[in-house]
Design goal:
Radius of gyration: 27 Å
Largest sheet: 6 strands, mixed
CATH topology of the largest domain: Rossmann fold
Shape: elongated
Number of strands: 20
Low-confidence stretches: none
Strand content: 15-25%
Structural class: alpha+beta
Number of helices: 14
CATH superfamily of the largest domain: HUPs
Amino acid sequence: MSLQSLIDDALAQTPPGRCVWIALSAGLDSTLLLTLAADACQRFPRPLRAIHVHHGLQAAADAFEAHCQALCRRLGVALTIERVSVDPSAGQGLEGAAREARYAAFARRVAPGETLWLAQHRDDQAETLLLAALRGSGVRGLGGMPMERDWRRRRLQRPLLGISRASLEAEAARRGLAWTEDPSNAECDQDRNYLRHAILPRLGERWPHAAGSLARSAALCAEADGLLAELAGIDLEGLGGDPGRLSRDGLSRLSAARRRLLVRHCCGRLGLALPPARRLESLLAQLGAREDAETRVAWPGGEARVWRGHLYLLAPLPIAPTGWWVAWDGRGPLATPFGGCRVSLAGPTGVEGRLWAMPRRGGERLCLAGRGHRDLKRLLQELGVPPWVRGRLVVIHEGDTPVALLDPAVGQWLAFAAGWRGEGEAPGGAG
């Protein structure tokens, strides 16, 4: 099958009327991909746009932008330029920080339901597998880049992933295409460039089909990862189906390998960063802690708690600024350090006065209908509210008197003083 036929087929499979975006870097791969996509749109009309991310990391960045503008003018394709700032001091390294900034730009411009095409090819896949192997990755990392996946309600596809760099060069030469070479691609201080220039050519001398074989191994690992995900899904259903709350007894009946797999699977389902191997082992070792222990294991981008027979997986909880409080009219949206929600609160007839909200300080008491004054600490224990949730609750006061208790992260009222009532809606509109 010719490259043009490959792209024709890929475009024909996208829903009519849905925009297809090309991530355009100005290099060979994306220049050719956009050219092929523009030709395909003559046969299978689809809205086609290109997006170029200007990282501003080198002097040639303006030349990359100029190439993209000229190419898109010639092809009649609308181009969006996204200028980003890259912070390599955030702990991800320069490559990781640039990638994060690039994908944030994609998310801003590519609308949910639309498709984004990336121009990685078979040689890129081989490099990705080697990098993953050298980092000691499991089958998920060794599976490399997927041909397609859902990403933030958008469709991410790599139509050229099975094609070698040499084939792309030959097609670009046949079409007389020009492109720009990123000078940093020739520098071997970055791991990927070192593999590209120093290692893979040597492997190719000994094993001419090395890149293709490595890419096939990545595909097999990706298939194995899919099967493991199915197994983890079965185990999750057996433990109740909630990825954020797993039965400790149910986990103990699984093998150690399946416990590790299930926790990673649940973190992925919840959008949490995966725990490093040592953190994960520490977490699983504490599943046998006594019932009244408040076990917490944290890692960048996630944390786990063991409480009352369950393992809870959750995002790191925000901390309220010292002295935070806010006035509220009881009707409009309420913004708090723990999340905003649309709730309302009304008091007894004839009660006037401005309401204000603040985090729990300790010692507050609510006068409950038919029960008299109750200490909030004991009330929360009776309600079975987990300890870490108690720290993000907001107490609504009328003057100096507590009148209601709210969990703003889920838009839920937990308790009211006598004569008070409220309605709430969870963040995002789910009531």
